[in-house]
């Protein structure tokens, strides 16, 4: 009512006292709704602190002059200040000089970006691209892509179970659980060798039921940093195909 009242063509004819009363009434209604909302959400528990961002807080509070922040994956200069790559600055200028509008992007994303992403992932001359056997959609960063993938697979696959490497990125498990999938783990890291437990990984994959979703880290496994060799990747691909599993590559 308040917004409509102000937008009325006859606003200038309204007495100031009436205007103040209308504003006061609207504010009272908003405050009342806020109080009701606070009661409705009073039982909401605080979520767990993010361990990586928590490290940043601890770093900022640490008075040590020799501290080094190796937590969040961002660039810093020698003074510990944010550093933007010169190539990124040049790209920003090039984009800005194009005078692009701010219209809504298509539902599946910007066509040019999607096409370049396909070629980056599969190669410029990949047969799957030439045969138009790849469907792509632009999403909101990595976590957004995982959530969209989880929701899509939960809706259209018969098998609702996804197996992730042990360990895996902290976001994987809650994202897939919130998407309705059942999350299990397969062996990946061997603490005795600080390397990939490849034999254990393959043994676990060979036991999975047909149609199980298998999450694979494409490179720079998070958090161990250990990746399979090229030969091991071939074995992984063969195992996934033989067991008729559904690979999801992050």
Automatic annotation (TrEMBL):
Entry cofactors: pyridoxal 5'-phosphate
Source taxon at top rank: Eukaryota
Swiss-Prot/TrEMBL keywords: Aminotransferase, Pyridoxal phosphate, Transferase
Any single GO CC term annotated in Swiss-Prot or TrEMBL for this entry: mitochondrion
Database matches in InterPro entries: Aminotransferase_I/II_large, Asp_trans, PyrdxlP-dep_Trfase, PyrdxlP-dep_Trfase_major, PyrdxlP-dep_Trfase_small
GO terms, molecular function: L-aspartate:2-oxoglutarate aminotransferase activity; pyridoxal phosphate binding
Coiled-coil region list: none
UniProt cross-references to Gene3D superfamilies, sorted A to Z: Aspartate Aminotransferase, domain 1, Type I PLP-dependent aspartate aminotransferase-like (Major domain)
Domain Aminotransferase class I/classII large: 66-250
Transferase found in the keyword field: yes
Pfam families xrefs: Aminotran_1_2
One GO biological process term: L-aspartate catabolic process
Family: Belongs to the class-I pyridoxal-phosphate-dependent aminotransferase family.
Subunit structure comment from the entry: Homodimer.
Protein name (record): Aminotransferase class I/classII large domain-containing protein
Species whose genome carries this gene: Neobodo designis (Flagellated protozoan)
């Amino acid at each position: 009512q308040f917004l409509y009242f102000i937008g009325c063509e006859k606003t200038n004819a309204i007495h100031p006292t009436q205007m103040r009363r209308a504003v006061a009434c609207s504010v009272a209604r908003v405050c009342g709704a806020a109080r009701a909302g606070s009661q409705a959400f009073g039982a909401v528990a605080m979520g767990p602190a993010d361990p990586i961002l928590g490290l940043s807080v601890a770093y900022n509070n640490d008075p040590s002059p020799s501290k080094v922040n190796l937590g969040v994956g961002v660039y810093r200069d020698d003074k510990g200040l944010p550093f933007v790559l010169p190539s990124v600055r040049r790209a920003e200028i090039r984009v800005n000089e194009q005078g692009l509008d701010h219209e809504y992007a298509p539902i599946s994303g910007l066509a040019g970006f999607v096409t370049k992403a396909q070629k980056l992932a599969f190669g410029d001359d990949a047969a799957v691209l030439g045969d138009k056997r790849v469907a792509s959609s632009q999403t909101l960063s990595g976590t957004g892509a995982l959530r969209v993938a989880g929701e899509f697979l939960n809706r259209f696959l018969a098998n609702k179970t996804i197996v992730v490497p042990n360990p895996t990125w902290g976001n994987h498990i809650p994202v897939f659980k919130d998407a309705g999938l059942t999350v299990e783990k397969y062996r990946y890291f061997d603490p005795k060798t600080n390397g990939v437990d490849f034999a254990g990984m393959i043994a676990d994959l060979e036991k999975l039921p047909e149609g199980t979703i298998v999450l694979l880290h494409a490179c720079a496994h998070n958090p161990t940093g250990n990746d399979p060799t090229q030969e091991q990747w071939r074995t992984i691909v063969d195992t996934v195909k033989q067991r008729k599993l559904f690979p999801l590559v992050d």
